[in-house]
Amino acid sequence: SSSSSSSSTISIEDQSSNYIPAAPILLPEGPWKQVPGGVTAAKGFNAAGMYGGLRAKGEKPDLALVTCDVDAISAGVFTTNVVAAAPVIYCRHTIDNSDTARAVLINAGQANAATGDAGYQDVIECATAVAKLLQLRPEDILIESTGVIGQRIKKEALLNSLPELVDSLSSTIKGADNAAVAITTTDIVSKSVAIETEVGGSLIRVGGMAKGSGMIHPNMA
Amino acid sequence: TLLGVITTDALVTSDLWRSMVLTAVNRSFNQITVDGDTSTNDTVIALASGTSGSTRISSLSSYEARQLQACLDAVMQGLAKSIAWDGEGATCLIEVTVTGANNEAEAAKIARSVASSSLTKAAIYGRDPNWGRIACAAGYAGIPFHPNDLRISLGDIILMDKGQPLPFDRDAASAYLRRAGETHDTVKICIGVGNGQGQGQAWGCDLSYDYVKINAEYTT
Fold this sequence. Notes:
Helix content of chain A is 32%, strand content 28%.
C-alpha cells in the first residue's frame, strides 16, 4: 500500500509540479461579479489543456484547445511586428475572410515564427487536423503559438496529441484552468478570469485567458 | 509573447464586436510593457457565441453596447495587468495613471512611455523614488505639454507639482516601494500634465537582475 500510495503520491505530486498557481486578477470596479471558469464561463464554450510533448523541458501542459458549440462571431487583434509568425499570418487571413469561427488551438514551446513557407504549411496542417476531428471546416479553426522564435512546431507530437485533446474538451472550470496553464511559457502564474453582468435584460458572461511574461510590449491592431 | 482568448455569450453583430475588441485591446493589452520588445506572435482572439439569450447588440451607441464594452475592458485589463504583474524577474506591478492630457490617446502614450522606461523600472527595483526619471520619461513620450504643468506622485506622496520638485520624506517613499516589492503589490505613479480631459493608464513592472538571467538562458 505504501508503494501504491507513494506512486499515487508521486503521480499527484507530478501532477501538481506540472501546474502553476493562478495570478491574482486585479479587476476594475464595475457592475459585474467575478465568476470562476475563464474561457468556459460563457455559455457555449469548452476548453482543454494537456501535455503534448512540445516543451523543451518538463511536462507542464503545452497544448490547449478552446471550442464553441455554435458559429461564434470572431475578432482578432495581431502584432504589427513585420516579422509576423505563421499563425498570425494565417489568423489574419482567416478572420478577414470569415465573420465566425469555432475553435482556437494554442501551442506553447515553439513560436513558429521566422520559419518561412514550411512554418506556414505546418499551421495549415494543424488547422486541417483539428477541423477533421471536430467535423468542421479548416477555416473555422484559429491558431496561436508561443515559445522559441525560429523553431518549427513539433508537429508530429502535436498531431498525435489532438485526439486526446479533443476528447478532454469540457465546459468545466477545470477545462478552462488546464487551458490557461497549457498556453504559458516563462510565466510563473496562469492568467484566467470571467465576469457576469446583466445586459439587455439577460445575464451575460465575458471571460478570458492570457499568457505573457517576457517579450512584452504589444502594439497590436 | 502575449496570447489571449476572450469568450462571451452575448449576442453582438460582427462589425460591432470587432470594433469593441480593438477598443478594449487599446485600453488593456496595448498598454502593458515588460521589456519593450514587441513579439512576432502577439495575438488576441475574441469569440461571441450569442447563446445567453440577450438582445442582439448592433449599435455602438446603445446602452447595451456600452455595458458590453465596459465588461470587455474589465476582463482584458484584469488579464493585461496580471501579465505585467508576472513580468520576468518582476517584484511588483507598476501602474501609471496620466490625467490632464488633451485626450485619452495622448494620456495613454505618456503613461506607457513612463511604464516602459528602463531607468524608471530599475529605480523602482532599487526602491529609489526617482521622480527625475519619471519626469524625463513623460517628457520624451512625444506628447507636448507645458513642463510647469507637470505633477508627479508616488502612492500618496507628491514628489513634484507645477513643474517644481517638492521636499518629500525620502525614507517613506522608499519604504512604499520596498513594501510593494516585498509583497508583489502595485506601485502607483500618478502624473498630471495639464487641465485637459484626457486620462490614460499603463502597466509595467520593475527591472531586476533576474530579467537578464532568465533571458540570457532562454535562447533561440
